[in-house]
Amino acid sequence: MKELLKLNRFFYKYKGTVLLGVLFLVMANGFLVWIPVLIRQTMDAVEKIGNEYEFSFSSTWEVLISPEAGTILATNSFFLMLAVVCYGILLYATRQTLIVTSRKIEYDMRNEIYDKIQKLPQSYYTRNSTGDIYVRATEDVMRVREYFGPAFMYMINTISRAGIIITIMILVNPVLTMWALLPLPILSVFAYFVSGYIHKRSNAIQEQYAKLAGRAQESFSSIRLIKAFSREEHEAQRFEEESEVYRKKKLKLDIVESLFHPILSLMIGASIVLVLWQGGIMVIEGLITVGNIAEFIIDVTYLTWPVASLGYTINLIQRSAASQERIAKMMREAEESVETDRNDYEILSENESVDIEFQNVSFIYPGSDEAALKNISFKIKSGKKVAFVGRTGSGKTSLIQLIPRIFNPTAGKVLVNGKDYLSYKLSELRKNIGFVPQDTFLFSSTIKDNICFGVQDASISEIETAAERAQILDNINDFENKFETVLGERGITLSGGQKQRTSIARALIRNPKILILDDSLSAVDTNTEDQILKYLRDSFINTTTIIVSHRISSVKDADEIFVLDNGQILESGTHQQLLKQKGYYANMYKKQLLEKELAEL
Ligand SMILES: Nc1ncnc2c1ncn2[C@@H]1O[C@H](COP(=O)(O)OP(=O)(O)OP(=O)(O)O)[C@@H](O)[C@H]1O
Ligand SMILES: [Mg+2]
């Protein structure tokens, strides 16, 4: 709740519109309450005229068309219409101000949150599921908007309408007011519990729906696998089971929801009966007029929704508060690096190439208790091409992702040009790194957008050069729309090797000082691989390059090769040196040579 109150700063930002909205709403209620007053006046006036001329009119009809009654009817009808029209216009204006403001606040909040999410460190993403983070930025923001929009509007509406109506009722007759209002608190409490129940159930239903949708999505995207293993029946069965759970939950909610309206009507009915009964007695006793009874009945119906919405609003606010609590928790998370008022950052000058040194670096993944890297030390001179090999799970990816500081080392130091790399501005460091991750990710956009992802305003010749160096240019030129070809769900799907090369082009176009390829040549044939490696040697002379691979062919020409095992460096040296050592590398070489010979047979 405290967190929610802190958000009132948003109200302050839009204070003009909010105040105007409140004014509109109060005025709207003023006009609404005028309606029963006019009806009472008309009824009383007509009744009076009818009594006065009791003997000269032969029918009610004649009373109504008599000049006296005619005037009253005409003016009051006009006022009635005026009240209804004004009420309508003001209600529209209220929504246009209050609800529109809540949308604007939602927009502000969502941007703030998205901004924050982008700045959170990788370790946050390891601790929290993507779905969870997604819900924070969408559903939770939506819930909080309800506090600014509907909840606030209903609250003002309830207060202003009930205030005006109850005052008028008390002025007419306090005792009758008490009778009329008797069932309403019950209604409010009832609405509170029912909306609470509905909310809880809807959440469960929503979760079940997400499960159902997830299942469907998984089946559709793995349809090839399902067909190949002929698991269609089985999949359909699994879907039906989830669907059945969903149906049952939904039906249970429907029962409660369908009870709500009859009970609402029952309460209004009770109010009306009380007014007629007690009011009737009062009319006979001459305390009030018949018009008053009509007025009270209309007033009571006008009160129903605001009173019922009181319970609903309290629920809404509780929900918003819970959502805001979760958002606030995320907003308090530490950001990736505090780059505020420091101005003593080291910088990498334009033409300087970079050397990298690891000093006793160890690394443990957040939430894990086993070290992925243990006491790693090595040095890469600027412009050198080095390689990391090792069995799967040996720590290659873990090691290279420390360089762009996707994670920071748990112990030890990384030096860039002899200085601790923590003393460089994070964005400055990353700006100079071209990174090709192991799991290629391409956006559902054009090839051009994908290649230019890390650069601003690249010229077409730069894009072509990058594509050529990554050996993907010919493929792209074969496509009908060339660089404008759309990839992903709405476009064509590239082959594994084409994806890898597009991803390499994306890194090369940045002309990085450090280039990291994490097993990025695994899906290309050896000829293409040779071509790419040749370009890397010839065109990126000053770029410090790190290649991770399982293939000897990718690494044999490297200036230095490191063999990783179990998070430690097992061997290091050039291809020739390592062969002489007759260790892991030599073994790996023998096996791959044998495979090649077998393949050529
Ligand atoms: N996000 C993570 N959280 C916890 N442990 C992880 C995480 N990612 C990897 N590991 C663990 O760290 C170790 C090293 O993994 P890493 O991905 O660095 O291996 P790799 O050498 O790149 O393997 P591959 O050749 O298969 O890509 C493995 O034991 C793995 O289980
Ligand atoms: Mg890896």
Instruction: Name the structural class.
Output: alpha/beta
Largest sheet, described in full? 6 strands, mixed
- Gross morphology is elongated
Beta-strand share of residues: 5-15%
Mean pLDDT figure: 84
What spatial order of strands do you see in the largest sheet?
Answer: 6-7-8-3-9-10
Main traits of this protein?
601 residues, alpha/beta, ABC transporter transmembrane region fold, Rossmann fold, four-stranded antiparallel β-sheet, 10 strands, 65% helix, binds adenosine-5'-triphosphate, binds magnesium ion
Report on this model:
The protein is α/β, with parallel strands linked by helices and 601 residues long. It contains 22 helices and ten strands. The chain has helices at residues 2-6, 8-13, 15-52, 60-65, 67-119, 122-127, 130-172, 174-181, 184-221, 223-228, 232-284, 290-331, 396-400, 426-431, 447-451, 460-469, 473-478, 496-508, 526-539, 552-555, 575-581, 584-600, and strands spanning 356-364, 371-380, 385-389, 411-416, 419-420, 433-436, 514-518, 544-548, 560-565, 568-573. It has a six-stranded mixed β-sheet with strand order 6-7-8-3-9-10. Strands 2-1-4-5 form a four-stranded antiparallel β-sheet, with no helix packed on it. α7 packs antiparallel against α8 (174-181) and α21 crosses α22 (584-600). The protein is elongated. It starts with a helix and ends with a helix. The chain binds adenosine-5'-triphosphate and magnesium ion (MG). Residues 396-397, 438, 518-519 line the site of magnesium ion.
